[in-house]
Structures are given as C-alpha cells and as structure tokens.
Write a structure and sequence with these properties.
454 residues, alpha/beta, Rossmann fold, Dihydrodipicolinate Reductase, domain 2, 3 domains, seven-stranded parallel β-sheet, seven-stranded mixed β-sheet, 24% strand, Sacchrp_dh-like_C
Length: 454
Amino acid sequence: MRSILIIGAGRSASSLIRYLLSKSETENLHLIVADLSLALAEKKTQKHPNATPIALDIFNAPQRKAVIEKASIVISMLPAHLHIEIAKDCLEFKKHLVTASYISDAMQALDEEAKKNNLIFMNEIGLDPGIDHMSAMKVIDEIRAKGGKMLLFESFCGGLVAPESDNNLWNYKFTWAPRNVVLAGQGGAAKFIQEGTYKYIPYGTVFRRTEFLEVEDYGKFEAYSNRDSLKYRSIYGLDDILTLYRGTIRRVGYSKAWNMFVQLGMTDDSYIMEGSEKMSYREFVNSFLPYHPTDSVEIKMRLLLKIDQDDIMWDKLLELDLFNPDKKVNLPNATPAQILEKILSDSWTLEPNDKDMIVMYHKFGYELNGEKKQIDSKMVCIGDDQTYTAMAKTVGLPVAMATLLILNKKITTPGVQLPIKEEVYQPILKELEEYGVVFNEQVMPYFGYNPDLF
C-alpha cells in the first residue's frame, strides 16, 4: 500500500484524514497519523483498518527521520515554523511534501534542490492561503485567455460563526487561533494599491477603514485591510494592475468595536503587565484608563472612548463582562494581548453545537475590447459540527486532494510552489464543489474609481 505520513492531528487535520481514509480502499492508501499526543492521533483515525496512529516528537530527529523514510509522501499540518526540518528530511529521503502554510524564506531556499531531485514541495494549499490562490487564478487565467487586461483584483476571506450560531452582539466567535485574531493588523502599516497609487493604513486606523460586501442569502459584511496586499502581485502576474487589495471579512460593526481595544492598547503584545496573575478583569481595564478620584471605571471608559449612553458599543463591552471585579486573569507574566485573548475566550468560544462559516469574496475588474467589466466570485461554506468545521474542511480538503494528485502523478511540476498552476487548481476546485465549497461567479458593472481623485 502507498503510505501517507500526516504529521500533526490538530483541528485542521480532521477533514483531511477523513477524506484520505474514504479513498484508502480504492487508492490503495495507508495513513500514518503522527502527533505528539497519541490519544489525539487515535481519535482522528477512529480505529480505521487503513490508518496507524503513532506518537511522534518531531524534535527527536532519529524518530522523525525513520517515519519520513518509510512514507510515500509527507503532509505536515504543524505550525509553519516547524516545517523546515521535515522538508530537509524529505529532501534527504526523496519524498514529496505538502503543507497549508505560507512559503517561508527557509522553505523557498530548498527550491533548487527540490527541483534537482524532481520533488514537489506544495505549500499554501489550505484555505487562505490556498483556496484563495486557486479560485483567483482560475478567473484571472480565464480573463487573460479571452485577451482581457486585469485592472482590479480585490480578495477577502473570513472565518466567522454560522448564522444559526450567531448569538452575541459582536456577531463573532473564535473559529481558529484566537491569538491571530487579537494580533490582527499589527506589524506595520497595511499596504495596497488603488488606481495606480500606493496606499497605507497605520495600525491605529486599520479597523476604521473598511469596505462593505453583500453576499446573497447571508447579508452584509465588512472587510478591513490585510497588512500586505501586494505580496502576490508578481506571483499572480499582476505587476501592472491599478488596484490590488486583500482584506479580512467580519460582520458589520465588528471593526468599529474592535477598534476600542486597539485605541486603549489592549492588543499590545510587546510588554508584560505586572501582577497579571492576580489581576481582575476590572483591574485590567482600569490599567489603561487615567486616574480619577471619584469617577468609576465605567465612566472613565465612556469618557475616554467617547461612548454615548445609548451606543451599542457600550453593550458590546458589557457583554464581555469586562468590568467584573471578581473574575481573575490567572495568567502569570502576561501581555495585554494575552489577557484580552483570555477575556474574549470566555464569550467567543464555540459551544458544542455551534457551527462555523467561511466566507470568501473576490472582485475582478478587467478591460476587454475597449470595455471595462467586472466579475464577482463568492463562496460560503458552513461547518458540519465541532470536529468537521468549515475551517477544517476548507484547510484540510485541498491538502488531501493535492496529496492524492501528486501521488497519482497528475501534479508533476517539481519545486517549492503554491497552487497557481492549472494542473493544480483545476481538479481541486472541481472536486471541492462535491464537498460544498462552491464559487458563484457573477458579471457585475465595473465599479472602478476615478483616477483623478486618487
């Protein structure tokens, strides 16, 4: 049997493992599911006859090399910074590698050697990055095939809570790594290009510069700018494009409310707060407010953030139980961002019966035969349950499908790469439709801007 080694059995691996096990008989597959936690690996494989769960410490080099050497192909579902040693082992033992993570400089440095050994190191084949690349390149390639010239490309994606589970004032719950949500937008100004002009949004205002999106049957959303929208300009072949913007989707009103935390400094991860372990939620809030001999924490907060008494922003803060003097942070040597994450997790953790939702939205503006046109492409995916979430489905399924295509020699281009070639995106997007990941493309009036005003 052909052996697929899956390293990492976390949340994103559930749909990946289920898919490959469903194909194991017809495709002659045996899965080795390796995780630091043997119990987790056992839970994900569910005693399937074509799967072997094992405990693996990836920092144990001899053990790691031994399992990689026996595999036909390797999938790494570990955090991005842990891929590189696995990739080097794959070079040593001449194994293909698939990950859902961004291509790091260290991974890119292996490109020449991978090509020399005719190895495929497929990266960025999850949701975002992944499905965003594939669904975008499909339309861009189709426009170019007709002789069209790209003028505008905007791409948005968000992990949200499904409408039936949306029961808080923020219209949001954590569907993925909470830390990434708390630190969103940091690390430099958001950068994009609009009608040929470079634009920059500093972190302090990124959540007040949003774009609105309408998705049929799901209502209105907003999107704030990603930090670097220009990262893929050359990779997509869009060096001459006038407008290029990438953003993160939330429900309308989220960004304005989140901006309160940004303005207070609660999302800062650069310093430790003294006495954080014994600090109450109320004391945490008060740490960012000016001293006043008589005003309460609530009054100081209202005055500082200019929140009117009837403003929904205030209700959103109350809903988080921010002013509770009895709830303790219980985190030693914590940063403001870590404490905020803990507080939000009280309210924003998915309940056992909650479902998550992925929304992706692309806008393509182009010129064909002297006429400006636009295509909007939208995708909504709802999770099944807490194990087979929409996030796990959209991250894991493309990884699994790419792995099988590589094994079956349907994807043959060697080297360190992301899924922008037709041999990759065409079969995967087609098969994803069978699992409810469907893009609906609509021809729209071109909404381009007046260049004289920008």
